[in-house]
Design a protein that fits this description.
The protein is of the alpha/beta class. It has a single domain, classed as Pyruvate-ferredoxin Oxidoreductase, domain 3, CATH 3.40.920. Helices cover about 45% and strands about 20% of the residues. The chain has eight helices and six strands. It has a six-stranded mixed beta sheet, sandwiched between helices. α2 (about 80-85) runs parallel beside α4 and α7 packs antiparallel against α8 (about 180-195). The radius of gyration is 15 Å and the shape is globular. Pfam families: POR (PF01558). Keywords: Oxidoreductase, Pyruvate.
């Protein structure tokens, strides 16, 4: 195990989106790179429409992330990105989907849905290191809407913020998925990297 500067990653999405699959994949990629990792699910609503929050911590003693402590925020749904913003440290890296999959409270009209511009403005108030992409659309292009999360993960690996690149994530996908799902996820990964560099 080589010494690594601690990186705290906070991930959030909506149930049924594949947030936990993304969490597991990222954690396994860190392990394969020979780095110490802790991952956990803070808040898991497995049913569709619930909020899912999880963490992946590289080289950290504690598995917890408090407000203002996340180096990286990965938001698989823009409203969830905003809700999780308090966890991101000032100037941290935010990667977010631009496509709404509102949680049930919004769908049932209990809450107003902000516009994407409002969301981008709130993120910009916290950090100038923010990237947005239509990850669900990329997932659909790759062959499965859930693989949109893999597109976002691929983009994260391509930012240089992690101690490995997209090829490390590709290797984990190959090691952990059956052939059929593998192809879709590898395509999504490729599309995510391309979207980041676009």
């Amino acid at each position: 195990m080589h010494h690594v500067k601690p990186i705290r990653i906070f991930m959030t999405g909506v149930g049924g989106q594949g947030t936990l699959t993304a969490t597991t994949l990222l954690a396994r990629t860190v392990l394969a790179a020979g780095l110490p990792v802790t991952s956990g699910e803070i808040h898991g609503m497995a049913q569709r429409g619930g909020v899912v929050e999880s963490t992946v911590l590289i080289g950290c003693k504690s598995p917890k992330i408090g407000h203002g402590e996340a180096d990286i925020l990965l938001g698989f749904e823009p409203m969830e990105t905003v809700r999780a913003l308090p966890y991101l440290k000032r100037g941290g890296l935010a990667l977010s989907s631009t496509e709404f999959m509102p949680p049930l409270s919004v769908a049932m009209g209990k809450q107003e849905c902000p516009s994407l511009d409002e969301i981008k403005a709130q993120v910009a108030a916290c950090t100038d290191q923010a990237r947005f992409m239509n990850s669900q659309t990329l997932g659909i292009q790759a062959g499965a809407v859930q693989s949109g999360n893999i597109a976002l993960l691929g983009a994260l690996c391509a930012t240089g913020a992690l101690p490995f690149g997209p090829e490390a994530l590709a290797a984990t996908i190959k090691a952990n998925f059956p052939a059929k799902i593998q192809a879709v996820n590898l395509k999504a990964l490729e599309l995510g990297v391309a979207a980041l560099n676009a």
